[in-house]
């Protein structure tokens, strides 16, 4: 889809790699002006040379800075 995460967020949380990594890619693309594509597999501890926990925290700050998942639901993104 055209959502900022590249997929629906319904029933998701930031512990799910498809949510956190896609938010991270969106933010990195905004910063660099380049398309960003990353992939990961179950058990990966690093993504884009960052610990997975750091990716989750970056995504958490982004979501919380916009009012949390509740705001995303109001906007129809969940």
List its salient traits.
5% strand, 78 residues, 47% helix, 2 strands
Task: Briefly say what this structure is.
With about 80 residues, the chain is mainly alpha-helical.
Kindly describe this structure.
There is one protein chain. By secondary structure, the chain is mainly α. The chain has one domain. It is built from 3 helices and 2 strands. It has a two-stranded antiparallel sheet. Strand 1 (46-47) and strand 2 (50-51) form a beta hairpin. The longest helix is centred in the N-terminal third of the chain and has 16 residues, at 17-32. The chain is globular, with a radius of gyration of 12 Å. It starts with 16 loop residues before the first helix and ends with a helix.
**Helix and strand element order:** HEEHH
Strand tally? 2
Biggest sheet: strands, sense, closure? 2 strands, antiparallel
Distance between the termini: 12 Å
Shape: globular
List the strand order in the largest sheet. 1-2
* Structural class by secondary-structure content: mainly alpha
Alpha plus pi helix count: 3
Q: Strand share of the residues? A: 5-15%
**Overall radius of gyration:** 12 Å
How much helix is in the residues? 40-55%
List the helices and strands and how they pair.
Elements: H1 17-32, E1 46-47, E2 50-51, H2 52-65, H3 68-74
Antiparallel strand pairs: 1-2
Helix pairs in contact: 1-2
